[in-house]
Design brief:
Elements: E1 2-6, H1 10-24, H2 27-31, E2 34-38, H3 44-52, E3 61-66, E4 77-78, E5 81-82, H4 93-100, E6 108-114, H5 126-131, E7 137-139, H6 145-158, H7 165-175, H8 179-193, H9 200-206, H10 208-223, H11 227-239, H12 244-266, H13 271-278, H14 283-295, H15 298-316, H16 322-333
Helix pairs in contact: 7-9, 9-10, 10-11, 10-12, 10-14, 11-16, 12-14, 12-15, 15-16
């Protein structure tokens, strides 16, 4: 039987693949009867041989082909040319692969995975067009908004827990549509809440992204010279287990992200590519950086970055204790004209 999974939601694709594995039967026997092929390099002959090989001491064999649809997709271009290894299907190679997947032996479960294929590009992919008459193509786009919140609620419910709507909304904002991270955070919240419903406070206490959200808020307070509020946020982060050196790293990272967002916006990079280049798995974090890039001048950000560097040196050389150095930093940055005294 042939299965085709495409889309950027890698977590859901892997869950679907696990469902196929469980349906096949004995996990131990499956280990010796599973072949994983790299679709970027595999030949038609290699694929056909893998599918036609009789399973050893088992009724089924599993053939997984990763990234084969991407080989025939539009892909990214460099200098007006397609990336190496990609083809537009004009040479008929896509049809040869489709023919190899027709009339599979009854003992073979073949799974074609295209985790980088976007839903909007499926109709442009010649391989997927050729495979469409053979089986249903299952699409797994990234979840957003209400769909993501429903996924959170369902996962909590299936685990025997409950979560308030406000906590669900906050969790989706903090983590975004990275379901690998989301599933981990949900598991932590379930353990933390126990038999009680998961509430907003639990999300703020447990979810790691809440710390980064507070770092953003602290940057806001520092740049807006709200010294008292910035100090309270800093103490909250320190009490939450963030050591001064780690806090400096987080602050420096966020300032660097704001600078990069400014630069990429000038170069007209779209939000999706921007988020990918910055390595941000949460829409919330990109939105905050986007807003701060609008509100703060390069001069003010350079002042902040220079003071962060000097504070880092003061802590590492033993000139100042970490907590004291951070308090001095916040007070110093609360002045209109930042003057280094170190």
């Amino acid at each position: 039987m042939l299965h085709i999974f495409v889309g950027e939601d890698d977590f859901s694709i892997r869950q679907a693949l696990e469902g196929i594995k469980k349906g096949i039967g004995d996990a131990t026997a499956l280990m010796t009867n599973t072949t994983v092929l790299d679709g970027r390099e595999v030949t038609v002959e290699q694929l056909r041989n893998a599918c036609d090989t009789v399973p050893f001491l088992s009724e089924k064999r599993l053939v997984i082909v990763e990234r084969l649809p991407e080989r025939f997709g539009p892909g990214e271009r460099t200098g007006g040319k397609k990336k190496a290894g990609r083809t537009d299907g004009t040479n008929g190679e896509h049809q040869k692969f489709a023919d190899a997947l027709k009339d599979l032996p009854p003992f073979t479960e073949a799974v074609i995975i295209g985790a980088e294929v976007k839903t909007k590009d499926m109709g442009k992919n010649p391989l997927l067009k050729a495979l469409a008459p053979l089986t249903k193509i299952q699409s797994f786009p990234l979840m957003k908004d209400i769909q993501l919140r429903q996924w959170i609620e369902r996962r909590v419910r299936l685990a025997g827990g409950s979560i308030t709507p406000a906590a669900t909304a906050l969790l989706s904002r903090f983590v975004g549509n990275d379901l690998w991270t989301m599933s981990s955070e949900v598991d932590k919240l379930l353990m933390y809440a126990g038999s009680s419903p998961i509430e907003e406070k639990d999300v703020r206490d447990v979810v790691s992204y809440a710390q980064e959200a507070n770092v953003f808020a602290m940057i806001d307070a520092i740049l807006e010279m709200r010294t008292g509020y910035a100090q309270r946020l800093m103490q909250q982060l320190l009490k939450g287990g963030v050591v001064p050196a780690q806090l400096l790293v987080l602050l420096s990272r966020q300032v660097r992200i704001i600078f990069q967002v400014k630069e990429m916006r000038l170069n007209r990079v779209n939000r999706a590519d921007m988020q990918k280049k910055l390595g941000l798995t949460s829409d919330f974090l990109l939105t905050k950086a986007w807003e701060q890039a609008d509100r703060y001048s390069p001069k003010r950000l350079r002042e902040l970055y220079q003071c962060l560097l000097e504070t880092d040196i003061a802590i590492k050389t033993g000139k100042l204790e970490g907590d004291l150095a951070m308090n001095i930093l916040v007070v110093e940055l609360g002045q209109k004209d930042v003057i280094s005294t170190r």
